[in-house]
Design goal:
Layout lengths: L1 H10 L4 H5 L1 H9 L6 H16 L2 H12 L9 H5 L4 H16 L13 H9 L3 H10 L1 H13 L5 H10 L4 H14 L6 H23 L28 H11 L1
Helix pairs in contact: 1-8, 3-4, 3-14, 4-11, 10-11, 10-12
Keywords: Nitrate assimilation
GO molecular function: metallochaperone activity; unfolded protein binding
Protein name: Respiratory nitrate reductase chaperone NarJ
């Protein structure tokens, strides 16, 4: 499903390759009948903004949006497991799913990185791709609602994904509006300082336990085994937009 490749690129870190493929990507959006005309227009507006504004400004806005705080993290399991050990096993399971499907990964990203997950779904048949989106539709809706609350044009990507998954977009977002509006923003300097302090405390506690492996983790508790390590992958993003543009031209 070509539109999933396009949305993957729109959600990834913007670079010159995206700008070079503007015409072909715009054509692919216009031809996408999996989404409504309204969603196609919203995606086209996002594409224009990402490719026509100054590149450094676009990259700065992207970083401020997705890399400050965790509420808009593009890592799926960040919203499900946080820092728990279950996240590591979920990573292993997803990597196994990629391998079984013959999806070769070369990007230096975690396997639950949403643009990478969309690249994978784009290689599957339409039914499997829709089911893959439906499996995480509650997370897609949450991200869409949070982005809309911040008036970000990137919300269009998640609304389109919900539509492809067969979810009632307006109903899904309406049910989250009150919750999202009441959330405390985690991208302020104060919130980021607090997160940094908590991570420092967790790091120091983990380091102390590593130095004293026999030390119990709490009164009357045996030390828990280490969580499953996270597996990084090695994928090259360079040329993705150019490759998609070539694919569109060959259609």
């Amino acid at each position: 499903m070509r539109i999933l490749k396009v949305i993957s690129l729109l959600l990834d870190y913007p670079d010159q390759h995206l700008r070079d493929g503007h015409a072909e990507l715009a054509q692919a959006i216009g031809a996408a009948r999996e989404i409504s005309p309204e969603q196609r227009i919203a995606l086209r507006r996002l594409l224009d903004e990402l490719t026509e504004d100054d590149l450094m400004d676009v990259q700065e806005r992207y970083t401020d949006l997705f890399d400050r705080g965790r509420s808009l993290s593009l890592l799926l399991f960040e919203h499900v497991h946080g820092e728990s050990r279950d996240r590591g096993q979920a990573m292993v399971d997803l990597m196994a799913q990629y391998t079984e499907a013959g999806f070769d990964i070369g990007v230096r990203e975690l396997p639950d990185y949403i643009p990478l997950y969309l690249e994978y779904l784009a290689t599957r048949d339409d039914l499997e791709a829709r089911e893959g989106l439906a499996d995480v539709s509650h997370l897609l809706a949450l991200l869409a609602a949070r982005l809309q609350e911040r008036e970000s044009p990137h919300a269009a990507c998640f609304r389109a994904l919900l539509q492809i998954a067969g979810e009632p977009v307006q109903e899904a977002l309406a049910g989250l509006q009150e919750q999202v509006a009441a959330e405390e923003r985690d991208d302020s300097l104060e919130a980021l300082d607090k997160i940094w302090e908590e991570e420092q405390v967790n790091f120091l506690q983990a380091e102390q336990q590593d130095r004293c492996p026999s030390m119990p983790s709490g009164p009357g508790k045996a030390r828990e085994e280490s969580p499953v390590p996270l597996h990084w992958t090695d994928f090259k993003h360079d040329g993705q937009a150019a490759a998609l543009a070539q694919e569109v031209r060959n259609v």
